[in-house]
Specification:
Elements (H helix, E strand, L loop, with lengths): L2 H22 L1 H19 L6 H10 L10 H19 L7 H12 L3 H4 L14 E2 L2 E2 L3 H5 L2 H13 L4 H15 L6 H15 L12 H14 L3 H25 L7
Antiparallel strand pairs: 1-2
Helix pairs in contact: 1-2, 1-12, 2-3, 2-4, 4-5, 4-10, 5-10, 8-9, 9-10, 9-12, 11-12
Length: 259
């Protein structure tokens, strides 16, 4: 299953790494990705920051709050930067509950108390959860499945399953469990990219324009009992982004006519 998607992805990935990532250098490429990923991941959850707003905040810090953006949104974005930086600097860490909890703690550290007084960043929810039009199951039962999810994901990678398939399957089941009081989406997208980065693969950036398709693919896991739609969505999103950036580079390499 997914042989065609894997074949196309791998062909484009090699070209992408050679033409874009390698030529940028690791630091610049990661900074570029951090801004794009943070802007879109937070926007999926309702943050109004644009990519340009995100770049300004990343470069100048909280001293330069973009016009029209709230302090809460700035704080949420700053927390996401810290979680991203932690993830990138700890790619040798075990893929376990300690990593999961620390990433969630960083993602929600300075906003959780405002949104949910009494909740503790990085600790599992003590109440049953709902999000949008979805009511999740018994939280104790769902949380009890987290250790097995983390362990089975490690085993899947060790068994040689394609990292994109593993990242998608982990993400879908993690969001099904929804173990934290807040930040489940941002935490899930960060750790999906942890899986990809640790295996030497480009980041997956789900853009705001694809939010509806992304949410629909997640819902199909709950409604149909299959994650095939989400795996296909991950491949489609990754391939589309790499193709777009390669096309952009080719276009910008063309000579300009001034007169």
């Amino acid at each position: 299953m997914f042989e065609k998607e894997i074949e196309e992805y791998e062909r484009i990935r090699l070209d992408y790494l050679q033409q874009i990532a390698d030529r940028m250098g690791s630091q610049q490429w990661m900074e570029y990705n951090e801004i794009l990923f943070s802007a879109h991941s937070c926007a999926i959850e309702g943050n109004s920051f644009t990519v340009d707003d995100t770049r300004i905040l990343r470069e100048q810090g909280m001293a330069m709050i973009p016009v029209g953006r709230s302090l809460l949104e700035c704080t949420e974005m700053a927390d996401h930067f810290r979680a991203f930086d932690y993830m990138v600097s700890h790619l040798d860490s075990p893929f376990d509950e300690a990593l999961l909890k620390e990433v969630n703690r960083l993602v929600t550290e300075h906003t959780l108390g405002y949104r949910t007084p009494g909740a503790v960043a990085g600790e599992y929810t003590t109440e049953d959860m709902a999000a949008g039009d979805t009511i999740f199951g018994n939280h104790e039962t769902l949380i009890a499945r987290v250790p097995d999810l983390m362990l089975s994901t490690q085993r899947a990678l060790a068994d040689g399953q394609h990292p994109m398939v593993v990242a998608a399957k982990w993400h879908g089941y993690y969001e099904y469990l929804h173990p934290f009081r807040d930040g489940n989406g941002r935490t899930g997208r960060l750790l999906s990219n942890f899986i990809l980065l640790r295996e030497g693969y480009p980041l997956l950036i789900i853009e705001l324009k694809d939010r509806a398709a992304y949410i629909a693919a997640l819902k199909q896991i709950r409604e149909e009992g299959t994650d095939e739609h989400l795996v296909a969505f991950f491949f489609k999103t990754a391939i589309s982004r790499m193709k777009e950036e390669l096309a952009q580079k080719r276009k910008n390499a063309l000579p300009l006519v001034f007169f």
